[in-house]
Amino acid sequence: MYNPDPRIQALPLFDGHVAWVVDDALREPRRVVDLAAAHRDAFAVMGHNAYPGLELRLPDEVSAALNDFFLQHVRARLGIRRVERMYSRLALVTFAADRLGPPQWFAHRDRFGLTPPQCVAASVLYLFDEPALGGTAFFRPRRPLADVDRMVRDSGVLAPAAFTRVYGIAPGYPRDDAWFEQVAVVPPRFNRIVFYDGGLFHAGVIPDPARLSDDPRRGRLTLNGFFTCRRGAA
Known about the structure:
Elements lengths: L7 E5 L5 E5 L6 H10 L14 E5 L2 H14 L6 E14 L24 E9 L9 E6 L3 H11 L4 H8 L12 E7 L6 E5 L3 E4 L15 E12 L3
Antiparallel strand pairs: 1-2, 2-8, 3-4, 4-10, 5-8, 5-10, 6-7, 6-9
């Protein structure tokens, strides 16, 4: 399913963190787009996360192929010792800006209720042709993490107007702001996949929400992987 001889490029982020980018990741990427289109009615908004759109959990054999690629080509680059579990999904960002709530206004981390020394690695595979639909941005906090954690908690309990008043974060998709510095962007390209430490703050770049669509052949379709891992010895 995946390119057996990938060319993997490093994208330095900050403080020694690196994202890993692979072009021409799938051998037959249009087949995955066809799969998404054939199951368009099965995409749904999930209640367990703040993803601003529709998701479709992928079969275990599809996740296994991504996991095999990760283990062979990326695990060591991210300093991972072993993968304990993983899953993958197809996803479509579809929310208009005025549908977003405070937890969706700023960059996020993938946490999944981890316990030390667990960590999360993540991947995004772009399956759309239109670059204007946006890539993936990485952010460095401008404030101490204790302050950021408090802000994140409050985003889930404060009313939108109150949250903006207290923290100065305006409604809309994440951007460089007083809380987060955008340090890097992976531009989208059809059949490009990026792997990264999910513990870094990151967000989809959505420059023009009016372009979003719930049609897998026209929208911002991605294949996302999440790997719960343990790191190698320091």
